[in-house]
Design a protein that fits this description.
The chain is α/β, with parallel strands linked by helices and 346 residues long. Helices cover 33% and strands 16% of the residues. The strands form 4 sheets. Strands 2-3-4-5-6-7-8-9 form an 8-stranded parallel sheet. It has a 3-stranded antiparallel sheet with strand order 1-10-15, covered by helices on one side. It has a two-stranded antiparallel sheet with strand order 11-14. It starts with a strand and ends with a strand.
């Protein structure tokens, strides 16, 4: 019998972009209304590089959370070629900072300060392994000669496999995976390796972005792949394998910044994220497995308690707004704007 109502422990988002400054007025409430906790990405301008900066950023986020909503931003440091080894111990001792994020230099939005060669940060990675601080990876190589659809696979072969040989106990999250190769790579590793999956990579493939004219609001990095990869991601996300959990990679960009000759990468899913995941799980008849993916496995991996509050989703159509207010007078076009989805959070 088809489920029309589902109650789950309140979910967490283990990969979200809130940006900083004025943007928080939009992003912090949207995220806080959906999730109890969120891993807040550090590729702000300027980036969040130290524990002290992370705590200050957390305060700026909390200042925009609506009254009466309990929301716990979990912070991350941006790894650079110059990150001091001493910061890792500070993370371990911090109540609110949970991880370190690797952006290969130039891989995505605001990643210019990223790591130029992973061997340069081996001393920091050694400490991450020793203290069991999660290492979060944007898993793409950035060489200009590598096809954009192959960059994740090449990263697995050229960077990640050697890294795990060198640091076999490293607690590692391959963020926003997009390919069958990445899914199988994660499955083959020990339990210290996990992955997050976004709603857009479960719901769409590159045809959605390219057929009938380029649709810039589907453009994200890592880029949408073939339908066969989308199928594999749906299989692993709905498999109840604790290595795979929710990370929206929700990223706000104004309409103008997306719809121009150099459209930026990122999909904004925060306001209806859990409903979008429900749609994806329901489409393959696995809605009852959403709770593990959304509410259990990420908390377990990060060594944090599971949430105790619940949310309820009902199978009732809702239309996603065509646009949302952003910054001063600008607009964001949310993921699936103007479309009807089948689930609604009550």
């Amino acid at each position: 019998m088809a489920l029309n109502t589902i109650t789950l422990l309140q979910p967490d988002d283990w990969h979200a972009h809130l940006r900083d400054g004025l943007a928080l007025k939009r992003t912090a409430p949207d995220l806080a209304r959906q999730f109890a906790r969120a891993i807040c990405m550090p590729n702000t301008v300027p980036p969040v590089k130290t524990v002290a900066e992370a705590i200050a950023y957390r305060e700026r986020i909390l200042a925009h959370v609506p009254e009466g909503i309990a929301f716990d931003p979990r912070m991350v440091l941006y790894l650079t070629d110059q990150t001091p080894v001493s910061e890792v111990k500070k993370i371990k001792d911090s109540a609110h900072v949970n991880a370190v994020k690797l952006y290969p230099a130039g891989a995505t939005t605001n990643s210019d300060n990223g790591v130029s060669d992973i061997r340069k940060v081996y001393a920091v990675i050694e400490q991450l392994e020793e203290h069991q601080v999660p290492f979060l990876l944007h898993g793409e190589v950035t060489h200009s000669h590598v096809d954009i659809f192959d960059r994740e696979k090449r990263f697995l072969d050229e960077v990640l496999a050697p890294l795990l040989k060198q640091f076999p106990k490293l607690k590692l999250v391959l963020e926003h995976i997009t390919t069958s190769e990445a899914a199988h790579f994660v499955i083959e590793q020990d339990r210290n390796v996990a992955a997050t999956i976004t709603p857009q990579h479960l719901l769409f493939n590159r045809n959605d972005m390219l057929v009938g004219g380029i649709k810039p609001h589907f453009y994200c990095l890592p880029i949408l792949k073939r339908q066969t990869h989308q199928q594999t991601l749906l299989e692993v996300a709905t498999s109840s394998n604790p290595k795979f959990f929710l990370g929206t990679d929700s990223a706000p960009h104004s309409k103008d910044a997306k719809e121009n000759a150099c459209g930026c990468a990122g999909c904004y899913s925060a306001p209806t994220a859990i409903e979008l995941y429900a749609q994806a799980f329901d489409q393959v008849g696995k809605i009852e497995r959403l709770e593990g993916f959304a509410s259990h496995f990420g908390a377990d991996f990060y060594g944090l308690p599971r949430n105790t509050n619940s949310i309820t989703l009902v199978k009732e159509p809702q239309v996603i707004p065509t646009s949302l207010d952003y910054l001063d007078g600008e607009k964001i076009i949310p993921l699936y704007a103007g479309q009807t989805i089948q689930w609604r959070k009550v």
